[in-house]
Write a sequence for this structure.
C-alpha cells in the first residue's frame, strides 16, 4: 500500500497546494518538496530489495465488478524513473518557488507541477496498461497547463496546444495499441501479458501494435518527425522546462519502449524502427541545437538529440546498448536538469536569454558557474563525470552493434562532437570572456535557485567517481527489467585504451573546433535552413489550419444563429428517427387510452392543453411565459395524481426556476414582434404538431410495453438493507447509480462555465496584474 | 420599482423556504426529496430574494462566490466517493456510521453515510448553478469585470 500512498499523497498535496501556498508564502516550495523528498528516501531505502529481484507491489481495488483496479509495481526500471521523478521534482519545487517569487499564481504552478509528478509516478509504476494510459494522458494534460502557465501570451498558448495535440494524438495511438494488446492477450496486466507473449508475437496485428506503440512513444519523447513540439514548449517557465522537458516527461516515451521491450522486443520491426528513428533524431537534434542562440532552445534541441540516443540504444537491444542507454539517461537527467535551471537562474539574474549576448558572468555568479561547468563537462562527455561514462558505454555499444555498425558509429561520434559544442555554448559561454551588457545588473542567485542546479551537477560528479554506490546498480537494475536478467557489468571511468576512447577524443576535438568556429558552422547550417519550409512543423501548422477551416465551415452551416432552424433540425431529426421507426413497425396503439379517467385527471389535462394553446396564441412575451408555466404546473399535478411525488416536486421546482430564467432572458430581448410570414408559421405549426403526435405515440407504446421487472425488484429489495434508504428513487440517484449522477453534475458544472462565458463576455477581458514569466 | 410588500414577505418567506429545502434534503433518503430537488427549492427561494431586492444583495446574502460553490459541491461529491478508498473499500461504496444508536433497544440511532455527503455535494452544485444563471441574468448586461480583487475576498466582501 506504500506505493498507493506515495502516488495519492502527491495528488493530495497538489489539491491543497493553492491554499497552502497562500498560507506559506514564498517559502512554500521548500515545504512542498518534503513530499517528493520522502518518496525519494523511501525508494532509496527499498532499493536493495528491489534490485535483488523483489519488486514492491501495491493494489487498489477501484471498481472490481468492472475488472478495474490500480495495480502498481516497482522494479528496477520503476526505481530509476521513480528516483528521477521524485528527486528532480523536489528540487524543481524549491527552484520554482524561488524563480517565481511573489508571483500571484506561484502556488498554481506548484500545484500543476505536483499533479504532473503524481501522474508521472503513476506511469512508471503502473502494472496495468489501462492505468498506465490514464496516467500517461494526465501527464499530457498537466504538461499543457504548465507550458501555457503564462496564458496571457499567445505564444505560450500556441506552444501548449501544439504539445497537447502532438502528444495527445500519440496518446490515442497508444490507447488503440493497449486495447489491441488487451484483447489479444486477454488481460491488461503486464505480467499476464508477458505470459501470453507468444500469442501476441504470432498475432497478425503485431505490426500494427508495434507501429502504434512507437507513435505513442515517439510523440511523447519528441522523436523525429515529432521533435518540433519540444523546442516550442520552451515557452513554459524554466522550472517546468527543467522538470518536464529534460528529465521526466519526455522520457516517458522511452520508459514505455523499455517497459514493452520484453513483450514486443522480438517483433521484426521493433529494433530497426527504434534504431533508425533514434539515430535520425540524435543527429538532427544535435545539428539543430548548434544553430540556436537562445539558451533554452539550444538545450531543448540537444534534449531531442539525447532522447534519440536512448531510443537508438533500446533499438540496438544488446546488453551493452541497453546498459549504455540507461547510464546515459541517468547522466542526461542530471546534467540537463542542472543546465536548464542554470539558464533560468541566468535569465532571473540578468534578464537575458541569448547565449551570444551573455558573457563574463563568472564573477557575479561564481557558484552558479561551478554548477554549470560541471554539468556542461558531463554533457560534453569529459571525465570524471557521469556523462563520460554514458558516452563511452554508448560508443562501445555501437561499435559492437550487430547491424548497421559503421553508420551508427559515425552518427554517434558526429552527434557526440556536436554535443560538445552545444555544451560549451549553453553551459560555459555565458560565464567566460568579458562582462556583457545585460538588461539587469547580474546578481548572484538565491539559495533556492542555486540548490537544484548545484546538487544535480554534483551528483553527476559523485555518481561517476563512486559508480558502485548508485549509478551502476540503478542502470543495471533498469537494464535488468528490460533484458530479463540483471547484466554482470559495472560502470567505471577508466576502460583502458579502447577504440571508444579514441572516438571520444576525436569527438571532443571536433566539437571544440566547431565551437571555436561556430560562426562558420552556423552559416553553413543556415544554408540547409531552407528545409524548414517542408519540415514537420509546417505540416502541423497546415493541418491545424485545415482543421479549423473545416470546423468553421461546418459550424457556419449548422449553427446559423436562428433559434428556429435549431429547433427545426433537432425536432426534425427526432421525428424522423423515432417517428419513422414507430411508423414502419406500425406499433402505435392509437385506440388505447387511459382506462376510466377520473374527473381530476381530465381537469388537469384540460388545464395543460389550455396552457399550451394560450402560449401559442399570446401576443406578449410575459403572457406566453405565464401560459407555458401553467402547462408545466399542470404536468406536475398530473405526476402527483399518478403517484410520483419525487417527479412532481422536481417538476414544480424546475418549472418555477424556468419561468424566472425565461423572464430574465426575455427582458434583454427587443420588443415581442412577429417577423415570420404566415406560411412559415404554418410550417412551424406543422412541425410542432408532428412532434407532438410522435411523442404521444411513443408514450402509448411505452405504456403498452412490458419492461423486465428484475431490475426494479432488485432495487426495491436492496434499497433498505444495503443502502439504508426507503426512497428508492433517491437511493438510486445517490448510491446504486451514483456514478451516473456524478457524471451528470460534472456536465452541469461544465455547462455553467459555458453559460457564464456566454452571458458575461466582459469577464474574459480581465487583465492580469502579475509578472509575466517565461 | 421595488415592491415593499414583496420585500417584506420575502423577509419572512426566505427562512421558511430554506428550512423547507433542508427538510426535503434530509428526508430524501426515506421520503420524497433529495439533494437535487432541495437544491432547486433553495435556488427558487434565493431567486425570490433576488427579484424582491436585487442581485447584489442576494450575492451578499449568499456570502460564497457562486463559482466556488459549484466547485465545492463537485469536490464534495467526488471526495465522498473517494473516501472509501482510504478504508480499503472500492470507489463509491457507501460508508455508514450511526450516532446515538443503542443495540440493546434496537434503536438504530442517526445514520450518517457517504451518500449523504454526495447528496450534499449535488445540493450545493445545483444551488450554485441555478443562482449563477439567475443572478447573472438579473445584473445589467456586459459590464467590464475587473477580476477578483487581489486583497479583499471578492464578491462576498
Amino acid at each position: 500500500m506504500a506505493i498507493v500512498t506515495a502516488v495519492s499523497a502527491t495528488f493530495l498535496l497538489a489539491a491543497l497546494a493553492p491554499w497552502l501556498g497562500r498560507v506559506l508564502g514564498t517559502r512554500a516550495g521548500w515545504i512542498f518538496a518534503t513530499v517528493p523528498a520522502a518518496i525519494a528516501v523511501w525508494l532509496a531505502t527499498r532499493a536493495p530489495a528491489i534490485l535483488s529481484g523483489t519488486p514492491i507491489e501495491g493494489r487498489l481495488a477501484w471498481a472490481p465488478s468492472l475488472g478495474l483496479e490500480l495495480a502498481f509495481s516497482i522494479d528496477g526500471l520503476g526505481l530509476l524513473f521513480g528516483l528521477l521523478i521524485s528527486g528532480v521534482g523536489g528540487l524543481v519545487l524549491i527552484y520554482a518557488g524561488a524563480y517565481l517569487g511573489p508571483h500571484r499564481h506561484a502556488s498554481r504552478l506548484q500545484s500543476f507541477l505536483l499533479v504532473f509528478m503524481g501522474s508521472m509516478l503513476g506511469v512508471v509504476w503502473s502494472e496495468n496498461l489501462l492505468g498506465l494510459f490514464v496516467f500517461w494522458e494526465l501527464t499530457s494534460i498537466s504538461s499543457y497547463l504548465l507550458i501555457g502557465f503564462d496564458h496571457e501570451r499567445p505564444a505560450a498558448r500556441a506552444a501548449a496546444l501544439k504539445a497537447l495535440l502532438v502528444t495527445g494524438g500519440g496518446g490515442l495511438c497508444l490507447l488503440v495499441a493497449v486495447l489491441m494488446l488487451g484483447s489479444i492477450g486477454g488481460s491488461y496486466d503486464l505480467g499476464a501479458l508477458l505470459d501470453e507473449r507468444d500469442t501476441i508475437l504470432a498475432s497478425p496485428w503485431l505490426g500494427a501494435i508495434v507501429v502504434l506503440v512507437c507513435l505513442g512513444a515517439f510523440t511523447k519523447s519528441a522523436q523525429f518527425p515529432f521533435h518540433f513540439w519540444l523546442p516550442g514548449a520552451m515557452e513554459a517557465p524554466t522550472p517546468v522546462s527543467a522538470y518536464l522537458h529534460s528529465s521526466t516527461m519526455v522520457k516517458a516515451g522511452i520508459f514505455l519502449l523499455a517497459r514493452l521491450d520484453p513483450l514486443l522486443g522480438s517483433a521484426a520491426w521493433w529494433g530497426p524502427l527504434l534504431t533508425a528513428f533514434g539515430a535520425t533524431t540524435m543527429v538532427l537534434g544535435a545539428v539543430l541545437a548548434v544553430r540556436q542562440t537562445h539558451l533554452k532552445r539550444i538545450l531543448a534541441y540537444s534534449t531531442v538529440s539525447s532522447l534519440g540516443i536512448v531510443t537508438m540504444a533500446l533499438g540496438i537491444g544488446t546488453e551493452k546498448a541497453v546498459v549504455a542507454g540507461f547510464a546515459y539517461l541517468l547522466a542526461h537527467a542530471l546534467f540537463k536538469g542542472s543546465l536548464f535551471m542554470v539558464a533560468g537562474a541566468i535569465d532571473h539574474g540578468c534578464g537575458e536569454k541569448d547565449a551570444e549576448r551573455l558573457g563574463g558572468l563568472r564573477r557575479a555568479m561564481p557558484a552558479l558557474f561551478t554548477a554549470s561547468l560541471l554539468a556542461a563537462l558531463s554533457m560534453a562527455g569529459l571525465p570524471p563525470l557521469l556523462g563520460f561514462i554514458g558516452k563511452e558505454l554508448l560508443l562501445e555499444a555501437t561499435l559492437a552493434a550487430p547491424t548497421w555498425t559503421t553508420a551508427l558509429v559515425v552518427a554517434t561520434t558526429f552527434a557526440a562532437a556536436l554535443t560538445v559544442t552545444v555544451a560549451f555554448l549553453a553551459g560555459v559561454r555565458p560565464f567566460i570572456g568579458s562582462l556583457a551588457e545585460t538588461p539587469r545588473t547580474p546578481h548572484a542567485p538565491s539559495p533556492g535557485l542555486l540548490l537544484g542546479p548545484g546538487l544535480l551537477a554534483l551528483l553527476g560528479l559523485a555518481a561517476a567517481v563512486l559508480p558502485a554506490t548508485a549509478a551502476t546498480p540503478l542502470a543495471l537494475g533498469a537494464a535488468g527489467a528490460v533484458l530479463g536478467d540483471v547484466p554482470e557489468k559495472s560502470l567505471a571511468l577508466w576502460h583502458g585504451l579502447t577504440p571508444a576512447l579514441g572516438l571520444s577524443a576525436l569527438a571532443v576535438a571536433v566539437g571544440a573546433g566547431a565551437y571555436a568556429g561556430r560562426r562558420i558552422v552556423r552559416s553553413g547550417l543556415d544554408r540547409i535552413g531552407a528545409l524548414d519550409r517542408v519540415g514537420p512543423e509546417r505540416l502541423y501548422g497546415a493541418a491545424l489550419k485545415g482543421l479549423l477551416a473545416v470546423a468553421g465551415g461546418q459550424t457556419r452551416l449548422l449553427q446559423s444563429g436562428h433559434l428556429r432552424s435549431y429547433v427545426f433540425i433537432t425536432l426534425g431529426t427526432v421525428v424522423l428517427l423515432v417517428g419513422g421507426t414507430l411508423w414502419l413497425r406500425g406499433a402505435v396503439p392509437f385506440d388505447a387510452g387511459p382506462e376510466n379517467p377520473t374527473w381530476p385527471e381530465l381537469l388537469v389535462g384540460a388545464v395543460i392543453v389550455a396552457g399550451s394553446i394560450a402560449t401559442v396564441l399570446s401576443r406578449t412575451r410575459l403572457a406566453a411565459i405565464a401560459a407555458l408555466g401553467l402547462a408545466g404546473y399542470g404536468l406536475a399535478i398530473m405526476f402527483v395524481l399518478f403517484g410520483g411525488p419525487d417527479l412532481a416536486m422536481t417538476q414544480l421546482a424546475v418549472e418555477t426556476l424556468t419561468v424566472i430564467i425565461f423572464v430574465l432572458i426575455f427582458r434583454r430581448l427587443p420588443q415581442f414582434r412577429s417577423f415570420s410570414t404566415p406560411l412559415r408559421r404554418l410550417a412551424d405549426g406543422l412541425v410542432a404538431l408532428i412532434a407532438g403526435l410522435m411523442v404521444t405515440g411513443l408514450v402509448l407504446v411505452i405504456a403498452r410495453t412490458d419492461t423486465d421487472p428484475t431490475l426494479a425488484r432488485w432495487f426495491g429489495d436492496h434499497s433498505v438493507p444495503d443502502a439504508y434508504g426507503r426512497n428508492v428513487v433517491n437511493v438510486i440517484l445517490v448510491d446504486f447509480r451514483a456514478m451516473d449522477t456524478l457524471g451528470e453534475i460534472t456536465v452541469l458544472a461544465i455547462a455553467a462555465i459555458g453559460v457564464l462565458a456566454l452571458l458575461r463576455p466582459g469577464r474574459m477581458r480581465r487583465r492580469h496584474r502579475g509578472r509575466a514569466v517565461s | 420599482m421595488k415592491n415593499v410588500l414583496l420585500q417584506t414577505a420575502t423577509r419572512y418567506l426566505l427562512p421558511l423556504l430554506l428550512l423547507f429545502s433542508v427538510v426535503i434534503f434530509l428526508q430524501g433518503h426515506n421520503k420524497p426529496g433529495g439533494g437535487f430537488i432541495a437544491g432547486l427549492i433553495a435556488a427558487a427561494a434565493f431567486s425570490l430574494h433576488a427579484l424582491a431586492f436585487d442581485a447584489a444583495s442576494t450575492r451578499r446574502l449568499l456570502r460564497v462566490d457562486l463559482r466556488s460553490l459549484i466547485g465545492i459541491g463537485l469536490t464534495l461529491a467526488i471526495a465522498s466517493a473517494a473516501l472509501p478508498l482510504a478504508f480499503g473499500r472500492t470507489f463509491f461504496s457507501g460508508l455508514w456510521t450511526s450516532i446515538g444508536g443503542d443495540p440493546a433497544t434496537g434503536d438504530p440511532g442517526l445514520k450518517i453515510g457517504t451518500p449523504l455527503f454526495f447528496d450534499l455535494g449535488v445540493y450545493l452544485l445545483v444551488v450554485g448553478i441555478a443562482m449563477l444563471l439567475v443572478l447573472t441574468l438579473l445584473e445589467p448586461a456586459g459590464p467590464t469585470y475587473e477580476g477578483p480583487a487581489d486583497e479583499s475576498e471578492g464578491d462576498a466582501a
Q: What stands out?
A: The first helix of chain A runs from residue 2 to 24. Chain A touches chain B through 54 residues (CB under 8 Å). The mean pLDDT of chain A is 87.
